[in-house]
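Retro notes, item 3 of 5
We never archived the inputs for the phosphoenolpyruvate complex last cycle. Fixing that now. Sequence and ligand:
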Amino acid sequence: MRKNIVAGNWKMNKNLQEGLDFAGELQTVLNGKKINCDVVICTPFIHLALINKQKTGNTVKLGAQNCADKVSGAYTGEVSAAMVASTGAQYVILGHSERRAYYGETNAILKEKVKLALENNLIPIFCIGEVLEEREAGKQNQVVKTQIEEALFELSAEDFGKIVLAYEPVWAIGTGKTATPDQAQEMHAFIRQTLVAKYGEKIANDTSILYGGSANAKNAKELFSNPDVDGGLIGGASLTVEAFMPIIEAF
Ligand code: PEP
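Structure as it came back at the time:
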């Protein structure tokens, strides 16, 4: 059965000490609570190894927000999937719309990143989603299908089974404009059908599909109550424990 997951995406926020403080506080608050989802924090690279060293147990899982599309070598400034894995991180966000828009990440590049992440036993949280003009033109399903097909559909069924998807309509990210629960469910069901057609019912039903885009304490419960919404990728509301906890507890 698929997992429910609430993952925080810190983006380029928090210095090292702030990150360590947050992770410590989150772990303290979570300890002793019954939580019905996996909790992941996706931090900047610099935090990963130290948070991993500081934390006890696996209540809070760690992820990076990116990794290189190359194995190693003369790629100044890049961080490889193997390096991410060596910190103790278990997840890596790939294909976030900010990486696609500001750093030119294409589906072809993302295909390489996914491959390397999997080879290094990292679980990709693979982001897909349409921009506003595409939704207004009614093209959102085709856009999302193409992103999935071009970056992921050469994977074997076994490898695809390790992927987590995050539907993040670009018009909802950081804008305060959330997809309605119906819009989210409609797209998540479409994504799952797309997976059924390629990999069959079992893998499609076992794939966690998260929603991302201005999710917060107020709307999380309703979003997560949809049958095909298996959690959230949370940006702004993952930056304080007070804002993040009610989203985790929405399950
Ligand atoms: C994100 O960056 O993945 C995201 C969903 O951001 P926000 O929650 O701030 O819209």
